[in-house]
Amino acid sequence: MADELRSSARRAVGSTPVVRHGRLKRRSIWKTIGKATASVLAVALVSGSAVAAYAAWDLANTAKPTVTLGNEDVLEGVPDIGAMPGGVNLLLIGSDSREGQGDGFGDPDEETAVLNDVTMLMHISEDHSNASVISFPRDMLVDVPECVDPADPAGDPLSEQYGVKINSVLSLGGMPCVVKTVEQLVGVTIPFAGTVQFMGVAGLSEAVGGVPVCVAEPIEDEHTDLYLPAGMHELAGIQALQFLRTRHGVGDGSDLGRISNQQVFMSSLARTLQSNGTLSDPVKLYGIAKAALANMQLSDSLMNPNTMISIAKALKDTDLDKIAFIQYPTYSADGAQVPAESAEAIRVALQNDLPVTFDPASQEASFASAGDPTAVDAAPVAEAPVEGEAPAADPAADPAAPAPTVEALPSDVTGQTAAETRCSAGRTLDDQ
């Protein structure tokens, strides 16, 4: 029965989860060191005692305080060696905070508002046959549930709010509140989360060994200092960060164009990790886990590197055409983005562990181009997606009909699979 409850919590089929209030509990450094020491056992099994001894010392020195989300009980009893059993929901938050990032990103006292300008949900199906990465536009309006006040965790909770931009939730209630907001939006439980700042992105891209990306037209962005000619580029470190941050230099200069650019990078990353054997190599995976520990603020549930390695291994045999990168559909209204009705198709896919297929018409609205950068013109600049409608349920449908095995996304839902090599639609200074 306990296994069934945990499986149900992971998939949250057809219902919005009931999530406990997350508390910003700081884990003691001695507990962290103890857990880090234990976590190298799997590494020892495959790489020898010398590496394991180094790993124990290294992780103890890498460890950072973590954050409690409040819903980690769904993971009780889940083993942490081998591929993660069952489904996985992990929220990645990109913070624009300049604190501790050096001089290259502006004055941390004047130019930071601790906004979650990147909010991505990675879902791996229970049988690991498919995965989706959903990007939520930063200006999308959402309702925020009651959350624990990070400034006073033991005091009165923060009241629920309605119609606020999703990128303000991190400053309102911290990582647990962002998690609760997305859980409420899509109807699945999210027991894993991590927040990364600018230099953390650079460090993680170095850890994976760089990512090849295709650029159809030159990218010129004086705001991020990124200048890339058309062609193929191997991106790592600061240049990878600049590519993921650029907005003015791609698409129509909007956040929606930036999301498409990020999907070009992430799909290439998925192809690279599968093709070079990283997802089957515990030593390489340990290096990436170490980089995550050093560069991210993680939920308690991700503190053990074995857990991160297990999640990565869950994707090693997933077909690339079953790994989808999806932009949550919205339409423009009064300077903000409002969730479109077609988002219901995404929620259905998440809650039922279904792979998705894109409507060919959606690719015409994408800011990324398919094909060889030497033969492809720049992608057409499209207007922001218009409000879409999810297909209405047929009340006369046969209740005994077999359950669908694929969720077909409406035409206003853009994105791509990891099997598709697409090119970033660059934008020069003359076009800005």
Structure description:
α3 packs antiparallel against α4, α6 packs antiparallel against α9 and α9 (282-295) packs across α10 (305-313). With 432 residues, the protein is α+β, with helices and mostly antiparallel strands. Strands 11-6-1-2-3-12-18 form a seven-stranded mixed beta sheet, with helices on both faces. Strands 10-7-19-16 form a four-stranded mixed beta sheet. The chain folds into two domains: 1-11 and 20-196 and 280-287 and 298-315, Nucleotidyltransferase, domain 5 (2-Layer Sandwich), CATH 3.30.420; 199-277 and 339-390 and 405-432, Aminopeptidase, CATH 3.40.630.190. It has helices spanning 2-11, 29-39, 41-47, 49-62, 169-186, 198-207, 237-245, 255-275, 282-295, 305-313, 343-351, 360-364; strands at residues 88-95, 116-124, 131-135, 141-144, 161-165, 192-196, 211-215, 219-221, 226-228, 231-235, 296-298, 323-327, 330-333, 336-339, 356-357, 368-370, 407-408, 415-417, 422-424. The radius of gyration is 21 Å and the shape is globular. It is built from twelve helices and 19 strands. The termini are far apart. A hairpin with a 2-residue loop joins β13 (330-333) and β14.
Average pLDDT works out at 79
Number of strands: 19
Beta-strand percent range: 15-25%
- How far apart lie the N and C ends? 58 Å
- Structural Rg: 21 Å
Number of helices: 12
Strand order of the largest sheet: 11-6-1-2-3-12-18
CATH level 3 topology of the largest domain: Nucleotidyltransferase, domain 5
Unreliable stretches, pLDDT < 50, 5 or more residues?
Answer: 1-27, 37-53, 375-397
- Helix/strand class: alpha+beta
Helix fraction, binned, reads: 25-40%
Main beta sheet: 7 strands, mixed
Number of domains: 2
In the CATH hierarchy, the architecture of the largest domain is: 2-Layer Sandwich
Shape: globular
CATH class of the largest domain: Alpha Beta
Domain Cell envelope-related transcriptional attenuator: 116-274
Biased composition (Low complexity): 381-408
InterPro entries: LytR/CpsA/Psr_CW_biosynth, LytR_CpsA_psr
Keywords: Membrane, Transmembrane, Transmembrane helix
